[in-house]
Amino acid sequence: MLTDAPHERPSVTSSTLRAHLLRHFGDEQRWMRESELPAFDCHQRKHDRLLDVLAEVERRFTKGDETGVRRLAAKLPKRLAIHATTMDATLVAQLGANAAGAAPGRWP
């Protein structure tokens, strides 16, 4: 976990997190486009914002500031849980509706 990582580890952990998020967000972006998710722009902005915050935390860490890494590590689980139960839940509902025969971008 980022909060427990020794001084050398947060940069490695954050780069691993960045790689995972880029893959995951890429999958979600494809699913949002394919399903014509009405909230695509909003959902994408949330992903972009998290990646921007992570980049800023990494930038500060390389200059010796560990505070941002620790703060992000403390807040990230709750923020991801909120994202999953709101934005991602909407995407799952859209994918389910499309699989059930609704036209893309429309709720049944």
Q: Which helices and strands, and how do they pair?
A:
Elements: H1 9-34, H2 40-62, H3 67-99
Which percent bin holds the helix content? over 70%
The helix/strand class is mainly alpha
pLDDT averaged residue by residue: 84
Principal-axis shape: elongated
Span between N and C termini? Answer: 41 Å
User: What Rg is obtained from the alpha carbons, in whole angstroms?
Assistant: 16 Å
Number of helices: 3
Biggest sheet descriptor: none
> How much β-strand is present in the residues?
under 5%
What is the H-and-E element order?
HHH
Q: Ranges with pLDDT <50 over ≥5 residues? A: none
Number of domains: 1
Strand element count: 0
Task: Explain this structure.
This protein is mainly alpha-helical and 108 residues long. It has one domain (2-98). Helix content is 76%, strand content 0%. It has 3 helices and no strands. The protein has helices at 9-34, 40-62, 67-99. The chain is elongated and about 55 Å long. The model has no long low-confidence stretch (mean pLDDT 84).
